[in-house]
Amino acid sequence: MDKKYGVYICTGCGIGDTLDMEALAGVPDNEGVNCTTHPFLCSKEGVALIQKDIDDGKVNAMVIGACSRRVNFDVFNFPGCIIERANLREGVVWPHSRETYPALTEEQKDDGESFDRIQMKAQDYIKMGMIRLEKVKLPEPYQTQSFSKKVLVIGGGVTGMSAALDAAKAGYQVTIVEKTAALGGYAAKLRAQMPVQPPFETLQAPVVDALVQEVEGNTNIDVRTNCLVARIAGQPGEFTVTMKKPGEKIPFDVPFPLPPEELVDENGKELDAEAAHQKYLKYNEGREDILSLDPNGELYGAVVLAAGWRPDVLKGEAYAHLSVDNPDVVTNDEFELIAAKGKILRPSDGKEAKRVVFIQSAGKDEDDSDFEYAGSVTSMVALKQARYVREDYADGKAYVIYQHMRTPGLQEYFYKAMQQDDGIFMTKGAVTDVTAMSSELMVTAKNTLLGENLVLKADLVVVASGMVPVTKDDPVINLAYRQGPGFRDNDIFGQYADSNYICFPYETQRTGIYAAGTVRRAMTIEESMEDATGAALKAIQCIESANRGMSVHPRSGDLTYPDFFFQRCTQCKRCTVECPFGALDDDARGTPKANPTRCRRCGTCMGACPERIISFADYTIDSIGSQIKAITVPSQDDYSEPPLRFLALVCENDAYPAFDMVGMNRVDYSPDVRVIPVRCLGSVNTIWIKDALAQGLDGVILIGCKHGDDYQCHFVKGSELAEIRVKKIGDALASLALENERVAFAEVAIDDYDKLPQIINDFVEEVDALGPNPFKGF
Asked: pTM of the entire structure?
């Protein structure tokens, strides 16, 4: 592409009132680049002005100095052109007031001693935008070698069938893989479902039979029962899938995760997720058959994982204080099977069970003592099963003892209906014991809402158990990926199959594989069916995006993908290991092998590479590094008291929007900070920090999403990796004789914008106390 440069600066929204436009336009003029100003650049006239220059062949690479790139992105969209948005409005003139930072007079401009901090920031942003145009290329979409629009659904329960029907009705071919002999899953064993229609008082007949008939009658759906997915290789749009019968051994079986005895250290302590993952990699090192394609495999475009759940049998540690060996103490799962056969009878002797106690807590006094995998579904199942008792016996009694009763949404009406039933008794409390008498059970509970202990006689005791996703013990999807057969952090330690529970439901850590139903969280049948629709739509979106060479969420529509300069690759494997989504495999030497449609374009591989050989067409080590070098660093030669200069590398997903909101609310922070948005903090290569300090910038702060148990990083681990890298940069700072405090890391949620000015100003003050960077002026 023969680049033709142009700069367009808007003077509206206070930009022209605050800045010296002649001086600002002089920045590109001094570089021989034409600069055009307009009072309302996003108007029809302003856009037409730019479009005319494009049509006349005058410009195809432009800096638009106006509002944030998060605003009017559809207005300033000129296909075939490289566009850089210099944020003069939210980033410069709105947060920084002339009352606080007065403009220079003509005399001050001439004396060479004064500096206009707002003007300098605006001019730096124009320079940074111009240099980026030189360093990037127009992206070209990746084209797959072969392509399929078929959707694979793993699991033939209500979730899987609903997802298959939704995709099929949208015109896509679907294959359902079900490991048992029939469709239906757990729902086929139910006696009834929760009410879904007003007044929400009557249980509903199971919908599973109708779903089975509809699936079997749909010509777009291929049903395979007694079948397992043995292996999935490849990438979205061209997944190569190998199937087999349960128990069958085939050459393309993916090695199962390490056996339990391998998941502990020498002291018997459970390995953390990263240590276990590294052990898995070492275990499979050099096994190229793990990654190779099955020549007889079937081609699919995307996968919906609807494998379901299994009951957590709590007749162990959580209920160790109860007499659980008695056959008349059953789990809620076992009780459902009893109720589905007809009238509720005791397992021990087949007699009528008219008095049933439902235990919802593990017997501890603490208010937060719910057991693992418990939730609102656990509460609603207890209410539903209590209704069974009342349906079967007019004189039946149901007792529900709980720590928490959760009935979200309209199910609150069902809860209230149960409260009005004289045969159903509910109280908060801790069950302390269940003992067997001659022909009945005795249940004792304390700390109840009545303020006194209870002793209840029961024919049957039902102990609540949680809904454990099947992916806890088995990856199910059996991926032929270098990072392992499952979801990395999930496949060994049992978390739900979800990638980002806040921002991107249905996604897993493996692009093109979307979780639905109870592998994501505990859900009712109704919720699972709705969930299936979302996952099916995500799968369709992924297929169509991959077909166009575009990435999917969160950088939806991005045409770039990682490009490697292999001549300098040292096979260190850092990119392969650190990729949050398993997009990179490698060969026997460890040379990375990209799978572009797996890639979500976060750039974590780029930040991980010590040789800096990974880049994207419009996002490279050089492009960001050159922007940093374009920042003006005033020295003693220019001013007797030069202003300090700071760099903020901020996540484009949370921190950069937070900066925009600071500007929109006209909240001031130090104008000596230059903000560069990055795709993810995981993409930040430490060379950028070293270069910034080496050229005289006084401090660098990285601001990203919150990480940890309640992580909000769009790319799962980017923020966490960045913080680790910042902590390790101390040696490099020591080699430059610089203080560690000159590099900082901060977390900001998108709604924490009000905290951002304080974070910035505290950092500036801390570095100011250290004094100027000794490299300033060199």
From this structure: 0.91
